[in-house]
Amino acid sequence: MSNSTDTMADDDYQDPGYFDTPQNSSQAHQHFLQFRHFFLPCVYVVVFICGLVGNSLVLVIHIFYQKLKSLTDVLLMNLPLADLVFVCTLPFWAYAGIHEWVFGKIVCKTLLGVYTLNFYTSMLILTCITMDRFMAVVQATKAYNQQAKRMSWGKAICVSTWVFSLLMSLPQIIYGDVRRHDKSICGYHDDEISTVVLAIQMSFGFFLPLLAMIVCYSVIIKTLLHARGFQRHKSLKIIFLVVAVFVLTQTPFNLVKLVRSTSWEYYTMISFHYAVTVTEAIAYLRACLNPVLYAFVGLKFRRNFWKLVKDIGCLPYLGSSGQWKSSEDTSKTCSASQNVEATSMFQL
After folding, report:
1. Is 310 left (phi over 0), alpha (psi -120 to 50) or beta?
2. How many distinct structural domains can be found in the chain?
3. Nearest in space to 124 (alpha carbons), one of 57, 204, 188
4. Which among 81, 94, 114, 174 could disulfide-bond with 41, CB atoms 3.0 to 4.6 Å apart, if both were Cys?
5. Around Cβ 14, how many Cβ atoms within 10 Å?
6. What pLDDT does 227 receive?
């Protein structure tokens, strides 16, 4: 993958020779630079604040309140952790977008690798969750009998996922550097290998896992549509929601970078740079969307959230909490007769 903050490193394309344009195109270029100068830092700040609060809350609930009953629960705990690491890098990029890069080469290399680490860790964890849900739904009896064994695999799977993602991030770490144009810029500057590296990373870290998820979910859909019971169909909606948000937010940005790395002429198109900037913002928003999804669709998450609120002494001031709890108890009663492993998918 090329520089995760590609739009920040694009000041090197300010050479008027790239554009070979009359005055109006030069003005359009200046308008884009002004747009990017304010738009991305604002996005970074919003994602940082919302992502820090939301993912910290999710992580606290997972550690202190959530009972890790399945492999999926173990894997899910790594998603907010990866997002939390990522959002903590955004203040650096916000400052650099407004001013310039002042944090040195080591920090530059590290932060360039963090986005890639977050992207592939999240993608691979979602793939592992897909495999686990495939076993739970399609091979429910076998999965139930091997539940303890699958739980023992959890730590090994998580460690392997993080190690593999770190290896995928090495090009950003190795070739990231600080260069001076009109100001100091932290970027991924090795153009000779960027296309090859990006193609390899996207193949093994995105397209192959995506293909695996499509195949598994196709079978899961077929199985659930033939099953009776509301809870199974509700689980079908929930399981797609988390994965769909990841794919829809991440695919445009990575495809735009892949296209740009193969065709230098796109550097001359102002509209394409707008596309890179906007799709990058959309990709980063995912880091603060997952906690919102958990809160709205996760019965266990909401129940544990109210336990946390009660423990810190805020519950008497929240009159609506009883309604939330009543709704959750009703949902829990309705689903009690279902097979726990097969129907608790993504209740979080």
Report:
1. alpha
2. 1
3. 204
4. 94
5. 13
6. 67
